[in-house]
Specification:
It is a single chain. The protein is an alpha/beta fold. The protein has a single domain (3-127, 194-278), classed as 3-Layer(aba) Sandwich (Rossmann fold). 35% of the residues lie in helices and 16% in strands. It has helices at residues 71-85, 98-108, 132-139, 148-159, 165-170, 181-188, 196-202, 210-217, 237-244, 262-265, 267-278; strands spanning 3-5, 11-17, 22-26, 48-52, 90-95, 113-119, 224-229, 250-255. An eight-stranded mixed beta sheet has the order 1-2-4-3-5-6-7-8, sandwiched between helices.
């Protein structure tokens, strides 16, 4: 497993799969072990995936300064990886909360990014908000699934700030477009994949300046893909469309019946969409 040194001396790890032109992949969580990405449904057959373990996660070292988990400070880790790989420009793919880091990297180093793919992206860095009622409306699309009544009741408790730990667990099927054995195994594997201290610090005060980031993205004219799941609750496809409008050269792809991990729900469709964009 290759490693490199961040600018503050923290040893960071990354995982390589596939052949060809590299694409740097940033996991979400926030601050989740990158193992959950796997090989992104087979995207490694088309590109060489360089998947970063964020500091304090996976095989990367825990930093001396816990404040360095903050999202805007992680930009330096991505830049250190680019330097380590000897890339003048990089293609960048980010999932979920990792999209916040990706757009902050673009805002700071726009000349270093050739293509940007944001997969079911979080929108905190750009200040877009999804209402609870909008999430409930999308969730109702799945009313005919056997697990729906219990999961929907839990989701209602969450959006009204009355949730228990059991509610958060009960609503988990909504993260997946198909609540099948593959999805359940993926969820079960998440135990031990989270750095809770890092996750809290990731979005700490000062991490995001949405107005400044939006201004920077408005001048970033490289190709951008935003891929949303048709039944994902975060982001909703409509919010992903708003996100796409912040870029001058972005396309939106909505993968039907996909949740938050679209490479699990329909790997062939996911790979075809992303590989076509990257190539």
């Amino acid at each position: 497993m290759p490693t490199f040194s961040a600018h503050d001396g923290t040893d960071l790890a990354y995982h390589v799969s596939g052949e060809g032109v590299p694409v740097i992949c940033l996991p979400g969580g926030p601050m989740r072990d990158s193992a959950y990405l796997g090989e992104l449904g087979g995207l490694s057959a088309h590109r060489r995936l360089i998947v970063l373990d964020h500091r304090g996660t996976g095989q990367s070292a825990i930093p001396e300064d816990a404040a360095s988990y903050r999202c805007d400070r992680l930009v330096d880790d991505v830049e250190a990886l680019r330097e380590h790989l000897g890339l003048d420009r990089l293609d960048l793919l980010a999932h979920s909360a990792g999209a916040n880091l990706a757009v902050l990297y673009v805002a700071r180093h726009p000349e270093r990014v050739g293509r940007l793919a944001l997969i079911t992206p979080s929108t905190k860095a750009v200040g877009l908000v999804t209402t609870g009622e909008a999430r409930l409306e999308t969730a109702r699309l799945r009313k005919d699934e056997p697990w729906f009544p219990v999961a929907f009741a839990a989701l209602e408790a969450i959006v009204t700030d009355n949730a228990t730990d059991d509610d958060w667990k009960a609503m988990e099927p909504f993260f997946y477009g198909r609540w099948d054995a593959t999805a359940q195994a993926h969820l079960a594997a998440e135990d031990g994949q989270w750095n809770e201290e890092a996750a809290v610090a990731f979005g700490a005060e000062g991490a995001f300046d949405p107005d400044a980031t939006r201004t920077a993205l408005a001048t970033f004219d490289a190709p951008v893909l935003l891929l949303a799941g048709g039944v994902d609750l975060n982001p909703l496809p409509s919010v992903a469309a708003e996100f796409a409008e912040l870029f001058p050269n972005a396309e939106l792809a909505v993968q039907p019946e996909a949740g938050h991990y679209p490479w699990l729900d329909d790997a062939d469709r996911f790979v075809a969409t992303v590989a076509t964009f990257l190539e």
